[in-house]
Design brief:
twelve-stranded mixed β-sheet; EC 2.7.7.87; Sua5-like_dom; alpha/beta; 31% helix
Length: 221
């Protein structure tokens, strides 16, 4: 039976985050609040946990989950190369609703699915999520819903879809993201001189804001 913690209650917040940390360490799944929608989280370095996440959502390996990280220092550890434009994107929009796909550090021993050697990274702008990430390290996190269903904006909405496939639900009220997921960009072709960038999913961060930040970068459709 899944455990649900009301994180508006300080005592449940403490026990909930502790339980979530131990649960993730065992390779099980936890639903957490983020600044966009609720996410279902797994240990990014446990292939079994990542597969459990994909199974819970009804997705295959061709849909690898993004990875949430606690700080920009982790970006340098997980990305193959951190170019100046990539640094500018991180400084401008993180923590926040921008997911950046970049080439993954080839030395990483993880299996997120069929990534083609890339990784999708984001720092969420939510205190509970950040606190948990600082304790656990990178987490594979995808929107808390079954494939094809709307993303959960509360832990209870997520529980209605995911049930006991998730061990722990951290309820922190309705998400502030107004139902908007993060904007996803393909930054694998960024170079020190600029290069190109492609928006794969329009979300909370607009194309105009990215173009204004990086006028030297060509924006592909």
């Amino acid at each position: 039976m899944a455990e649900v913690f009301d994180c508006s209650d300080s005592s449940q917040l403490l026990s909930g985050t502790r339980t979530a940390r131990h649960t993730l360490g065992r390779g099980e799944l936890v639903v957490i609040p983020t600044d966009t929608v609720y996410g279902v989280a797994a240990d990014a370095f446990s292939p079994e946990a990542v597969q459990r996440l994909l199974d819970a959502k009804g997705r295959g390996r061709q849909s690898p989950p993004p990875v949430l990280i606690p700080n920009s220092e982790t970006l340098a550890a997980l990305a193959a190369e951190v170019t100046t434009p990539l640094t500018q994107l991180a400084e401008a929009f993180w923590p926040g609703a921008l997911t950046i796909i970049t080439q993954a550090n080839p030395s990483l021993s993880w299996d997120l699915g069929d990534t083609g050697g890339t990784v999708a990274l984001r720092i969420p702008n939510h205190p509970l999520a950040l606190e948990l990430l600082r304790e656990t390290g990178p987490l594979a996190v995808s929107s808390a819903n079954r494939n094809g269903e709307p993303a959960g904006r509360t832990a209870e909405a997520a529980r209605q879809m995911l049930g006991d496939s998730v061990a722990v639900y951290l309820e922190a009220g309705e998400s502030d993201g107004e139902g908007l997921a993060s904007t996803i960009i393909d930054a694998t072709k960024l170079t020190e001189e600029g290069g190109t960038l492609r928006i794969l999913r329009q979300g909370a961060v607009t194309r105009e804001a990215i173009a204004e930040l990086l006028p030297e970068v060509a924006m592909e459709a």
